[in-house]
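Anyone up for a design puzzle?
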């Protein structure tokens, strides 16, 4: 049967006390809405409609290209009203529609798939995903008679005996699409919040004699709805723990999982060791047998096999097999370290390729450069790539030896096996096998330093 998905993301999230729409707040480095969208892919829906409202422009901008169908709910009149707004896309469709909320980042794709399967197996017209809450405060309560669900009552409308119910509405449902839109037309805002509640659709189905089923969530953690920053932190902790657990079971050693921050879209090979105090974010990909030490932060980085990163910052950099960097290296976008290349302490590399076995051990800046294999950079080398307006490239061929303190004024080419003398300012190309010296001559003024205070204190 055709499947549709509706994701409600129009609310301001008043309790977040934020200028940012609630659903754009991040959990494990990805917006809550992006989590919900990505997890909903598991159900293979024909169409997904996202209801936006507060901060519509920024929410719309955040949508992935293949899931960018949205409607704008101008006034947030309630979850039922929000679904009504999708009628232009959905009201005339057959099939089933899942409704889920954009503030529930922990729901997994597996659960959503299971909910559809359960709904179909039960031959139900509506199925609500429920959970047993230790503290049900704030949730809609599931009211049953003789075991069968009869309605959902919101906290603010509940009687004392209804409040005592621990089975709650997680906020995820599957409906027969046509019956859903029929029932939505009949909603009334006659309740404590003056809102059109989606939850009232359940009672209306029961009254009309349509079969309503309920599937209980096995792991209640998944249903956490984030309404304030304290719940955001809880979601963060649970999501981190879940991600870290998956990596550990896949053969990754995390020395201190509690302080290891791994994003949802990160992959790590077996036998890699990640120390505590490490952040792996974005689409970072790490191969097997790597080692990343405390204080490292990798965003969109790619490490091949047996790479070592010591207390370094990587953004969009690629490190091939057996290369290493740090401590305190900064590898910026466009950096490629080929096999066995070595970048040491206080070295910054940007938009540059370092060939096999090339070494830059200390205090060096390599920007906009193409460097061959087995090149040696002495300490304090700088590629002078920027004249205030334009950037220029430096090319260094295989086996070149760049003396300490060289300044390579780009554009410039250093030939194969060439050498620049320490302290040189290189403004012209250096041919293959040549040695370039570009520095002022030293003059010694005898006796001139005598009697000058060189050192103060004891
Ligand atoms: C809702 C449910 C409650 C359930 C709980 C689970 C209703 C009436 N209540 O309550 O039964 O236990 O979720 O977390 O549905 N939204 C819109 N437009 C609106 C109103 C809300 O898009 O006009 C969106 C919000 O952005 C949010 C979601 O719907 O993502 C849920 O709204 P929220 O106000 O958080 O509902 P709860 O009070 O948590
Ligand atoms: Ca909520």
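Challenge accepted. My sequence:
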């Amino acid at each position: 049967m055709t499947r549709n998905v509706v994701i409600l993301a129009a609310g301001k999230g008043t309790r977040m006390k934020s200028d940012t729409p609630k659903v754009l707040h991040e959990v494990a480095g990805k917006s809550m809405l992006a989590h919900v969208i990505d997890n909903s892919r598991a159900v293979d829906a024909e169409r997904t409609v996202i209801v936006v409202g507060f901060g519509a422009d920024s929410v719309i901008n955040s949508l992935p290209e293949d899931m960018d169908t949205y409607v704008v709910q101008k006034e947030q009149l309630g979850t039922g009203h929000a679904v009504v707004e999708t009628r232009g896309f959905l009201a005339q469709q057959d099939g089933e529609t899942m409704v889920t909320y954009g503030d529930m980042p922990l729901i997994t794709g597996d659960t959503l798939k299971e909910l559809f399967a359960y709904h179909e197996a039960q031959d139900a017209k509506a199925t609500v995903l429920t959970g047993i809450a230790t503290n049900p405060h704030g949730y809609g309560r599931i009211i049953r008679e003789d075991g069968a669900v009869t309605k959902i009552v919101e906290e603010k409308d509940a009687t004392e005996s209804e409040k005592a119910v621990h089975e709650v509405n997680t906020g995820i449902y599957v409906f027969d699409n046509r019956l859903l839109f029929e029932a939505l037309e009949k909603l009334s805002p006659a309740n404590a919040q003056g809102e059109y509640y989606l939850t009232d659709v359940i009672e209306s189905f029961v009254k009309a004699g349509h079969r309503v089923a309920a599937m209980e969530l096995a792991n209640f953690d998944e249903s956490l709805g984030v309404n304030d920053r304290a719940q955001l932190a809880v979601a963060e902790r649970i999501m981190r723990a879940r991600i870290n657990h998956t990596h550990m079971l896949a053969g990754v050693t995390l020395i201190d999982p509690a302080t290891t921050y791994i994003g949802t879209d990160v992959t790590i090979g077996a036998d890699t060791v990640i120390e505590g105090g490490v952040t792996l974010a974005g689409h970072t990909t790490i191969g097997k047998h790597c080692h990343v030490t405390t204080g490292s932060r990798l965003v969109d980085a790619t490490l091949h096999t047996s790479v070592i990163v010591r207390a370094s910052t990587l953004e969009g950099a690629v490190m091939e097999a057996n290369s290493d960097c740090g401590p305190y290296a900064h590898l910026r976008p466009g950096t490629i370290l080929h096999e066995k290349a070595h970048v040491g302490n206080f070295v910054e590399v940007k938009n540059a390729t370092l060939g096999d076995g090339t070494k830059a051990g200390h205090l060096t800046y390599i920007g906009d450069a193409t460097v061959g294999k087995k090149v040696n950079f002495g300490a304090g080398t700088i590629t002078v790539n920027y004249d205030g307006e334009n950037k220029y490239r430096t090319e260094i061929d295989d086996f070149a030896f760049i003396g300490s303190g060289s300044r390579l004024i780009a554009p410039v080419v250093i030939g194969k096996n060439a050498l620049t003398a320490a302290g040189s300012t290189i403004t012209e190309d250096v041919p293959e096998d040549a040695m370039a010296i570009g520095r002022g001559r030293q003059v010694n003024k005898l006796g001139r330093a005598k009697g000058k205070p060189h050192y103060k204190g004891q």
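A detail worth pointing out: Residues 3-223 form a domain with the Spore Coat Polysaccharide Biosynthesis Protein SpsA; Chain A fold (CATH 3.90.550.10).
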